[in-house]
Write a structure and sequence with these properties.
Blueprint (H helix, E strand, L loop, with lengths): L1 H10 L9 H16 L6 H7 L6 H9 L6 H15 L6 E2 L2 E12 L9 E4 L10 E16 L2 E11 L3 E2 L8 H10 L7 E4 L7 H9 L2 E6 L5 E3 L19 E3 L11 E4 L9 E11 L4 E10 L3 E7 L6 H9 L3 H13 L21 E2 L5 H34 L1 H8 L14 H18 L5 H7 L7 H7 L1
Parallel strand pairs: 2-7, 6-15, 7-8
Antiparallel strand pairs: 1-2, 2-4, 3-4, 4-5, 8-14, 9-10, 11-12, 12-13, 13-14
Helix pairs in contact: 2-3, 2-4, 2-10, 3-4, 5-10, 6-7, 10-12, 11-12
């Protein structure tokens, strides 16, 4: 009962994002089902997880396609909730909370799903094909400190390419990522950590204007410039903006300029690396950035970039080393939460080509374009429901670890005292305590009453919850 009380105190803060109370309750039920479902078979698993009547399948579909739910508003409210509840656990660097950004590509084989396009995957994993058809998403997470290290708590995730609606909309994925990040309502200053793809002027300039800073990797073929020398006395004309051109890769050849230091990378003990700092002008943004060149004894060479030229180089290395936690978050979202396990078809859609790129609907009738927007909104809302569900499981693991283990009711060889449980353990604890929550919740509890009225006692799941 304690777990579900904390769970509901977080979810009810999202109510202002919905125009109707009934739509909000359907969304809350979907998040509850995502937290406790034993399988990831789309919306049908929501119905099974809560033991609901078969008519509730249509109710979930209507909610995901409803115009009365605003995914962007949900993300902003969810971010506000996370920052308020987990303020003491947030990772900070230089007094700034740390956020991670990255993209994920989800395979979708449906030929009547908007925004599905041919995507290239850069990975050394043999299980990943080089090209897939699917949705390209970008996500932003907060970094939370735990007893055993850190984890990435998701805040928002969106499909940012695949459909062209307007000829005047020239926004790229980078533009959309920055817009999504700043729309979360995080008060500056803050720090965003991302990989080399996001080391671009389209990201750095709006972040700096909003009071944020960026730490990312730089490509090995990147170039920068030293400050220009002072002009000779009495020389007329425009002063030089850039000085000597520097190929960053060539700085690795000057071994004497590197200094040794203990590796601050997460999980490493007794490892010594070498690093070098160079504050140089970067032409894409026209300002000085701090470049940190790192030589790791086993990981090789890396060039890091930071927009804060006063940042400590070892701190830049430490913070960037936590970036891989967003990859772990993606793995949990795919295999434990089913965040991207949606299968919403658009029956009126013209089948896409096998060689398709972005779906161009600019010349289509207005009704067709609106149908595409409606289906995309359903995808975004399903993804945001999974984001909230995953964040709730992680929050409960940090805030209520003892209650989680009390409700776990099973055995796990790797239980370690003081270490927060995983998302799957929290999900099992919520599943075990769900019948008690429905039975003991007050009669006026809106979500419990909503679920109790729709439980089907004729099925095994419903009988378990109704007993």
């Amino acid at each position: 009962m304690r777990l579900w009380s904390v769970w509901w105190s977080c979810v009810e803060r999202l109510r202002p994002a919905f125009s109707r109370g009934r739509t909000f309750l359907w969304f809350a039920a979907a998040v509850a089902a995502a937290c406790v479902r034993p399988d990831l078979a789309g919306v049908t698993s929501f119905v099974r997880a809560l033991g609901l009547e078969r008519a509730c399948y249509a109710g979930f579909l209507a909610m995901f396609h409803s115009a009365g739910a605003d995914p962007d508003r949900i993300a902003a409210l969810w971010t506000r909730t996370v920052l308020a509840r987990l303020d003491a656990f947030l990772l900070r660097s230089g007094g700034r909370p740390v956020f991670l950004a990255d993209g994920i590509k989800i395979a979708k084989s449906g030929r009547k799903m908007p925004a599905v396009k041919k995507l290239h995957q850069e990975s050394d994993d043999n299980t990943k094909p080089e090209f897939i058809f699917g949705h390209s998403c970008q996500a932003v997470t907060a970094v939370v400190r735990a007893a055993a290290g850190h984890f990435a708590l998701p805040l928002a995730c969106r499909i940012h390419e695949g459909v062209v609606f307007d000829s005047c909309d020239g926004r790229s994925q980078l533009d959309r990522l920055v817009e999504m990040t700043l729309a979360l309502g995080v008060s500056a200053p803050a720090l965003l950590v991302a990989d080399a793809y996001y080391a671009a002027a389209k990201v750095i300039r709006p972040l700096l204007a909003a009071g944020w800073h960026l730490i990312s990797a730089a490509r090995m073929n990147a170039v920068a410039y030293r400050p220009p020398p002072p002009p000779p006395a009495g020389r007329r004309g425009r002063r030089r903006v850039y000085g000597e051109k520097v190929r960053l890769r060539e700085l690795f050849d000057e071994i004497a300029a590197f200094v040794e230091g203990p590796s601050p990378i997460y999980g490493e003990r007794g490892v010594t690396l070498r690093y070098r700092v160079a504050d140089l002008l970067w032409r894409p943004v026209g300002i000085a950035l701090r470049f940190v060149l790192v030589i790791h004894p086993t990981r090789g060479k890396k060039i890091l970039l930071c927009t804060d030229i006063s940042a400590d180089p070892l701190e830049i290395i430490r913070v960037y080393g936590i970036r891989f936690k967003i990859e772990v978050s993606f793995k949990q979202a795919v295999h434990t939460l089913g965040t991207y396990a949606y299968h919403f078809w658009m029956m009126a859609m013209k089948p896409r080509s096998r060689e398709s790129g972005n779906q161009d609907v600019r010349s289509e009738p207005r009704a067709y374009r609106e149908a595409v927007r409606r289906k995309l909104r359903a995808y975004q809302l399903h993804i945001q429901a999974g984001v909230v569900a995953q964040g709730l499981l992680q929050s409960l693991a940090v805030l209520q670890p003892r209650a989680v283990w009390r409700a776990f009711g099973s055995w796990l060889r790797t239980i370690r005292p003081g270490v927060p449980p995983s998302e799957r353990v929290v999900a099992l604890s919520l599943r075990n305590s769900l019948p008690q929550f429905l039975a003991d919740a007050p009669e006026e509890h809106s979500l419990a009453k909503f679920i109790r009225r729709r439980v089907d006692p004729g099925r095994a799941e419903g009988m378990r919850l109704a007993s």
